[in-house]
Amino acid sequence: MNIQPLALSFMAATAVGGMAWVFIYPMLSGEKQAESRRASFSKQEPAVRQNDRNQRSRREQVEGSLKDQEAKRKKQKSIPLNIRLTQAGVDWTPQKFMIVSGVLAVVAFVGVLAWRVRRRLQSSAIKPDTTPP
Fold first, then answer.
1. Rounded Cα gap, residues 11 and 17, in angstroms
2. What is the enclosing helix (H) or strand (E) of 36?
3. C-alpha dihedral over 52, 58, 63, 67, to 10 degrees?
4. Alpha-carbon dihedral of residues 117, 120, 125, 128, nearest 10 degrees?
5. All residues at 6 or more sequence positions from 92 whose CB lies less than 8 Å from its CB, including other chains
6. Angle of helix 81-88 relative to helix 94-126, nearest 10 degrees?
7. Which of 62, 100, 53 is CA-nearest to residue 81?
8. Full-model pTM
9. C-alpha dihedral sign at 26, 29, 33, 37
10. Per the domain annotation, does 107 fall within a domain?
């Protein structure tokens, strides 16, 4: 006996039954009616009261004014560079400080770069040659 037509008909019947279950069962069981009743009682969005809107706008105004006050305080707290140099006991101008800082940054960068290149060259020189003779 050939089982292939029997298996094919079983799969087709299962597929048709599944489709019927998905599309017809909700109508027969009353599930659609229950969903429509629930939807009629419950709303998607809660009602927004006018009082809530006023509170939100007031809250936004307070947040904005607090941010402005904080920005003013930060601006007042920042001390100019020439005063900081004087407080540190250095007789440099801000321009001289910037130049010295830039030169030191370049020297540090070149030093680290040279150290890395030297390490890389040393590590490649230590590795034995594994190519066959």
1. 10
2. helix 31-41
3. 160
4. -170
5. 85, 100
6. 80
7. 100
8. 0.39
9. negative
10. yes
- Residues 61 and 81 reside in one and the same domain: yes
Residue type, 53: R
| Residues across the chain | 133
CB 24 within 8 A of CB 18: no
Instruction: Tell whether 83 and 98 lie within a shared domain.
Output: no
- The range of the structural domain enclosing residue 62 comes to 55-89
Q: Which of 24, 22, 2, 3 is nearest to 11 (CA)?
A: 3
Q: What does the angle CA 105 – CA 106 – CA 110 come to, to the nearest 5 degrees?
A: 120
96 and 84 in a common domain: no
Tell me the Ramachandran region of residue 30: left when phi exceeds 0, alpha when psi lies from -120 to 50, beta otherwise.
left
Domain total in the chain:
2
Per-residue pLDDT of the chain in tens (133 residues, 90 and over written 9): 688 888 999 999 999 999 988 888 777 777 778 888 877 777 666 555 666 667 778 888 889 899 999 888 877 777 888 999 999 999 999 999 999 999 999 999 999 999 999 999 888 876 665 666 5
